[in-house]
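Q: What structure does this chain adopt?
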Amino acid sequence: MKKKLGKLSLALLTTTIVLAGCGSNAGQNANSTSNSSASNSGSNNTASSNSGSNNTASSNSSASTQALQPVDLTWYFPLPAVPADMQSVEDAVNKITQAKINATIHMKPAAFGDYTQKMNVIVASGEESDIIWTSNWNFDYAQNVAKGAFIPLDDLLAKYAPDVQKSMPSFVWDATKVGGKTYGLPDYQTVTNREGFKIVKSFADKYSLDTSKIKKITDIEPFLAAVKKGEPGKIPFALDQRGVFGGMLHTFGLEGIGGLGTVNFSDPSKVTDMYETDAYKQYLNTMHDWYTKGYINEDAATVKNANDVIKTGNVVSVFHNVLSADAVANAKATLGDIVLAPTTDFFASTGTIITTMQAISKTSKNPERAMMFLNLVNTDKELYNILAYGVQGKHYTLGADNTVQVNADAGYAPNAAWVFGNTFNALLTPGKTADIVGQVEKDNESAQASPLMGFIFDVQPVSAEIASVTAVVNQYGPPLNTGTVDPAKTLPEFISQLKSAGIDKVIAEMQKQLDSWKAAK
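A:
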């Protein structure tokens, strides 16, 4: 779950390349996020066909529940929009939590765009709260750990949620550690990235595209040329103003750090300014060549979201960094039937994992019960599916194929099951099968883990420089990253302006922190 550079704010930029997963845009890199990347952070990429309550999941028997004193817990989390009928869902949630852990949950959703500001106010004021959703792209996990907003969870997890700990690969937990301690419980979903092209199947078939021969981005060019020649009005390759370099770093043998730095797989101890890498030059030259030849949409530098281009129905291919086992099913609503042409194997990094997490606030008076609740959310399938889809019969029904049929007019359709907990407990949605879900979980377990797993860059020491660098990226990024301008002329000027803004100091700080992290590890 989940799942995106030129237009991003400072808060987003600092996680852009780390987030190279998350796939939040259906046709672009997730630097955003993002992986979406978000953005995607992510979509509900996984689902389970099991709908009943897991009665063995609760850490408390009926007898022990009776011994627990009643408590109230607040839970803050973001959604695309605040549902109109939260009350029905909260009531249904509390029927379960009151019976199993004697806790009443007060659900506090906020729109994605408002969430960070809202939570900054709550944390700064010292207001009492219990569970707080956090990530590397919205209400930043590492920064709030540094501020002391969250408590360590290691002992609580071991005592109240051992099954949750066992449900995820060890490298997932490695990604959550700050100073050797875990402060966030991941909402388990697709934690892998695999970069490559999504291509509309009818055109791949028509032009006899052999996807197995596409190993690097330039391998697809003969296909783009054929589409350009034979399909007037179609867009061979769609981009928005962010471009896709951040989402194809692994294709170039790189891994991102903090949205501005990279390390090479051949030497993961050396941090380099991403804009001065040979890979970035190659990317810009390729995009400019494709733009000049008419393969890329002419308005790419001004389009904020590639989905707006995809909605026209004229897009033939895109590049994405989350080609998970369910990518074909996920694309049906946007691109239609597609084929995949991966340019990397499955891999996992800190940024692909900490995209959606639950933390316990330092102001919580009931951290033990908060962890009991998080355990319940991640092990009780009935509870999780109420959170994901609402009340059965009101907010959704089960179709003939036992998949969720959402009633969009009933007041609860968050379309963000990955915000709440383990998405492998979710009911199947149209286009998903149990086989696909099982494959996603296998890919998680077999993915290659980053050598930098668990390293999180702290932006605070160079926040002023990052703000200045961001302004330069906002100016030069869109035309460069979309191939709209000639990099031979513009890239040297861009790099010069970045240096004037202080990017060398930022990279030096990244190197310092990476060296310290490696030494401590």
